[in-house]
Amino acid sequence: MTTNVIVSAVVSLVVALGIEWLAKPWLEIRKERLLQSARRRYELGERLVIVAMEATKVLWPELPADVRDDNRRAYQAEIDRSYQRLDDTVKAVYDDMLTAGTYIGRPRRVAVSYALRARMVMVSDRTPAQKAELLVQDTKPVQEYLFSPWWNAVGRLRGFRGTVQFAEADEPPTS
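User: That's the sequence. What structure does it adopt?
Assistant: Structure tokens below.
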């Protein structure tokens, strides 16, 4: 009887220590990798929101002729600041291609294609308004495809269709 109790205690001790020393470190490493991937996806989502927001601001209409010069300068300064922020954000998306590594399969191809296309749009010799128009047009389906909640099947499908058209379209010329 006491032998059974001692054997049970020893087996429990060996199993507990084995899990603690062998399995737990690997689980902690995996947990950290998953958290890092989630952070990168979140950052990409934030950047796509910034791209859409700043590109929309670049598309603001011209002011009427009767607006005061100081207001006109402030308005143009805000549009210029938005264009610069748009360019910086697209550079950050392009430079952080590791974010695409957090996806598997088609979502990875969509993320990489978007980053490359967005950067090529920004370095092209189009006007800022044309660049902003293209970025707004490309960003929305990518956002819907990569960041729609799992229960929003309509949004995901709409984003999927938009990214199919986006992926099959010719790359924008750089000049």
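The CA atoms of residues 48 and 139 lie 7 Å apart.
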